[in-house]
Specification:
This protein is mainly beta and 112 residues long. The protein is built from no helices and 6 strands. It starts with 26 loop residues before the first strand and ends in a 20-residue tail after the last strand.
Length: 112
Amino acid sequence: KLTFTSGQSSTGDNTQCFDIGIVADNIYEGLEMFTVELFSEIAAVTIAAASKSATVEIEDSDKLKVGLVAASEFTEADDSEVVCVQIMSGTVGLEGVNISMQASGGTATKSG
């Protein structure tokens, strides 16, 4: 709650600020957003429509690092092989993360 005191006006000391806590949680969640909206419980106070609300974007600083695990050599006689991807650092958020793969440089194809 912000309170402007008696005598404050549009000139001089006319700004108040508040903190919004941001949690560094080491979980990759992508871009996060929230909206701050102003309102007054006093009828004599009008909130300017153009600045009544603002959307705040938080760029996720937590990065998920993945990599191939034990990518060994295969032979054509092996019909197919399993290649594994491992989370090397970070934590996957609630939305999950899709990792794409592409086989190139030969006759290998992706199955499934």
